[in-house]
Amino acid sequence: MLNDISIGRYYRKDSILHGTDPRVKAILYIVYLVAIFIIRTPVALAVLTAVTLLQAVMAKITPRIMWLTVKPVLPIAMFILLINIFTIRQGNPVFSWRIIRITDYGAMRAVLTALRLVFLIISTSILLTLTTTPLKISDALESIFAPLKAIHIPVHEMAMMMSIALRFIPTLVSETDKIMKAQISRGADYDTGSFVSRVRGYITVLIPLFVSSFKRAEELAVAMDARCYHGGDGRTKLNPLKITSRDVLIGLFYGILAIGLVVTDLSLR
To answer: Nearest-5° angle of CA 95, CA 99, CA 100?
Structure first.
């Protein structure tokens, strides 16, 4: 069911990546994000797969959690795969029938684009949501973008909004699952009928979900107001972030792996 989706959830474990400074993990995430969209060769993809598995082992993420992380994006990845296969006409044809023409270059680009999406979700989960609490993510983003305060950009408020958004992803998924079960018990059917009728059926889920979301947002606003929250001016932190030598070594280790990944890809083109 929807409650099995692990995107946006914190996976509590005692691992090396869980204990790493969130600022280091946020910077590494940006580095790997760039690397994911640069690489093109199969060898580089294999190296990226090995590095990703190493991250999962260091974070003590089980195969089940990895599968639940990837599962929701597989339909999108498959859609991207098919769109690219049937629309990219460059390269040597490997299959042709009437208006359908599949080329070797188009197939390679389609697989690469789909894998990029999958690796993007996995990296986001391992380096951020699964191993870092929303509060630490907020503190890390506020610390990284602190220089922007000099030009009057509300860094604290933006980091707070992002952490709240990540925090409420599992809540909204759970709420959607409850609403769907309640509607099914009243006779709703989301699995049979035409595509149009099934889309219309989901209206019975969207409307209560919107109402519940606005209610939760109002309750959160009232709670923050009751606690005299007025932004980041003059606020202190109970557990301030501190970068240790171990954090630096982990950052250098994964940074070197990312650079080596890009260099390997460029040398094989």
So the answer is: 35
Distance separating alpha carbons of residues 30 and 134, to the nearest angstrom: 18
CB 94 within 8 A of CB 102: yes
Q: What is the DSSP letter of 191?
A: S
Q: What is the pLDDT of residues 103-159, one digit of tens each?
A: 888 888 888 888 888 888 888 888 888 888 877 888 888 888 888 888 888 888 888
H or E stretch including 100?
Answer: strand 100-103
Length of the chain measured in residues: 269
Closest listed residue to residue 122, CA positions, set 4, 253, 7, 254: 7
User: How buried is residue 228: exposed, middle or buried, by Cβ count under 10 Å (0-12/13-18/19+)?
Assistant: exposed
How does DSSP assign 175-188, residue by residue? HHHHHHHHHHHTT-
15: phi > 0 → left, psi -120 to 50 → alpha, else beta; which?
beta
Tens digits of per-residue pLDDT, 24-66?
A: 998 988 888 888 888 888 888 888 888 888 888 888 888 888 8
| CA Rg value for the chain | 22
